Every structure is written in structure tokens, then in C-alpha cells.
Amino acid sequence: MRRIKGFAALAIAASSVLAACGSTGSSTTNATATTNVTVAYVPIPLFDPLYIAMAKGYFAKEHINVHLTVVSSGQSATTLAATNRVQVVLGGFSAGMFDAIHQGLDFKVVGSMAAEAPGPAANGLVVANGVIPAGKTLTGSELRGKKIGIDGGAGAAGGYLLAEALKPYHLTLSDVNVVNLGLPDMQTALANHSVVAAYPSAPFLSAILAARDGTLVSPAPVNAAVVGVIYGGAFAKTPAAQRFFDALAEGAQDLQGSAQTSAANLAIIAKATGESTAILKSEPPSIYAPNLAPPIATLGAMQNVYITNGLVDYHHPMGTSTFVDASFANHVPTS
Fold first, then answer.
1. Which domain covers residue 136, as residue numbers?
2. DSSP conformation letters of 231-279
3. Buried (b) or exposed (e) across 111-144, using 16+ Cβ within 10 A?
4. Contact of 21 with 80, CB cutoff 8 Å
5. Rounded to whole angstroms, how far apart are CA atoms 79 and 74?
6. Which of 167, 200, 219 marks a domain boundary?
7. Does 335 fall in a domain?
8. Is-contact 42 73, C-beta < 8 A?
9. Which residues form the SsuA/THI5-like domain (predicted)?
10. Are residues 197 and 214 in the same domain?
11. Contact 129/198 with Cβ under 8 angstroms?
């Protein structure tokens, strides 16, 4: 999974970012109506299929006119999707998302975005120097009750990833002191022992390891996708919903294997994210399912973690169909 970057650094072409958010609109000048779709997304480089589909005209081919609007978090936009002020959200999954669905807000996860790839870790649990006793391996006693930095706190997607990393040490989130710590601040916090551990993403992870300010003890699970595609309920009922998803999946299909780092694709991603192609090449790659199938197993596991640790306001798991709709992914045309 590629690195998470500061909000202000993402630069999408100004013509693609429109201030207006509203109900889906159509133009009937063509045989198939052109539908305006507002997409709220968190400005982090984990949504390459969107950039590819826009640049290569896949949305236009499906008679979709995409309007982009930046939000601070996926959770902050779910209410907009539920009320049809935006139609699509690309962002991270969180305890707040599950709570909102349980409370009756009308939206569902319909697809996945970037997942962790095999090979060099893009995300993982890092412990500060001196935490592991010399000549020994890490045990739960070195972490129990101690501060661990997570971007967004325990209820964010990183909280779930930390919970997975703690399992081998027979610990849960409730056994440690999770603090909300921004990714750019993690290296300093580890170096001065403000926290005993943190869960950074690349390139913050690689910078920490290169400076020897910590030790990677648990890479993120391969194939774990904690970001994805959310549809508002009203939009999901329209014909445009499948056409939008088909275009997005076509973008994902262009990112399979070595094609992800083709010169053409890197140029598109670099323009969309403000990254240089050299940095993009050096970052660990992401995995995108060709049909962007929603990560049902991961979402179920996330819900269980949030319930177990008291991070949601309900106590019994919702059925998968309450928060996931896989029908759009299931109907993506096969190449």
C-alpha cells in the first residue's frame, strides 16, 4: 500500500475539483444520459484506479462526468453520501463508519481500493530503540499499558491494523494506550521515546528504518484493504452506479502486475498526486482487485475489533449485507 501523504500536498488539476456538491444530475443530449457524479475522497495516494480512469476517459466512455471534492476523512463524508450531497466516497474504513450504518445512515461499502502487497512493507508496527531487551525478542510485557501512536487513533483503520499486529503478543487495543499521532510526527516520537511504538506508512516507515529510529516487528497483513469505495443509498439505485463502478474497475485492471509502474501510468499518478515518478517507483506497490471486490472478510474482522474494544456503540455484529454490497463488483465486465 503506497504511503499516506499530507492533505495539503495533493494536487489534482483545478478543473477536476469543483466546489459544488449536490444530487446526481443528468444531461439528456445523448442517447445515454451523461450523469454528474460527485466523488469525495481523502487526498492520499491509495486511489490510483480513480486517477487512471479519469485520465484515460473511462468515465466519459460510460457517460459519467466526475466532480472531485476533497474531504479530511472518509468518515466525514459518509453523511454526505447518505444524504446524496455526494454520491461516492473513496476513503478509509473506521469505527465511525460502522456506527453510522448501525444508526441507519444510508450508505454501503461497494468496493476495495489499495491493499498491501507482498514484499517490502509499506505499513507496519515499529518499536522504538531500547524497547526490545538486548539479545531478546519482543514480548507483550514491553507493550502492555504503553503508548502506541496511530494516525487517527484507535477507531481509525490503523487501529484495526494495530490490533492485528498485537495478536501474536496476546494483547488487544484495550491492553495498550493508543494515542492519535500523525504520520509525519512518528519518527520524532519514536526517537525521543514519547511512544514505545507506532504504525507508520511508507515513506515514513522507510525513513524511520533508514535512520535506525526503530525496528519493524510486524508488517501489515498482505492483501489487507482498509480503504475502499462507498456509495450513498440513493446513488446505488441509479443506472449510473454500475457504469461508474465499471469505469473505476477498468482503471484497476490497467494497474495489474508490472503495468502499475508503466511510464504512462506513473505519469498519470504523478500528476494526480503531486508525487515524482522516481518516488512512485521507489514506493512499495499496492494491489488492486481487477473487479475492485469489497474486502468482506477484512470488514468483518474490523467490525469485530471495534466491538471487542468498545469503539462502536453497539455490541452485536451487524450482518455483512448491512454494510457491504458486492453486486457492482460482481457485474464488472470480464476482459
1. 124-219
2. EEHHHHTSHHHHHHHHHHHHHHHTTSGGGGG-HHHHHHHHHHH---HHH
3. bbbbbbbeeebbbbbbbbeebeeeeeebeeebbe
4. yes
5. 10
6. 219
7. no
8. yes
9. 47-253
10. yes
11. no
Task: Determine contact, residues 80/40, Cβ cutoff 8 Å.
Answer: yes
List the CATH number of the domain containing 146.
3.40.190.10
Element (H, E) at 280: helix 277-282
Kindly give the pairing relationship between strand 107-112 and strand 227-232: antiparallel
- Do the beta carbons of residue 112 and residue 294 sit within 8 Å? yes
pTM above 0.85, yes or no: yes
Render pLDDT for 231-270 as a digit per residue (tens, 0 to 9): 999 999 999 999 999 999 999 999 999 999 899 999 999 8
Work out the average pLDDT over 269-278: 86
Give the Cα separation of 187 and 209 in Å (integer).
9
And the C-alpha cell for 60? 466519459
Q: In angstroms, how far is the first alpha carbon of the chain from the final one? A: 25
Same domain, 215 and 232: no
Mean pLDDT (the chain) is 88
Strand partners, 34: 27
Task: Tell me the backbone φ, ψ of residue 173, rounded to 5 degrees.
Answer: -60, -30
What is the spatial distance between Cα 66 and Cα 244, in angstroms, rounded to a whole number? 9
Model pLDDT, residue 102: 97
Q: What angle do CA 142, 159, 216 make, to 5 degrees?
A: 50
Q: Is pLDDT of 276 > 90?
A: no
CA distances to 126, 129, 130, 214 from 135, rounded to whole Å, are: 18, 13, 11, 16
Q: Verify that 204 and 282 share a domain, yes or no.
A: no
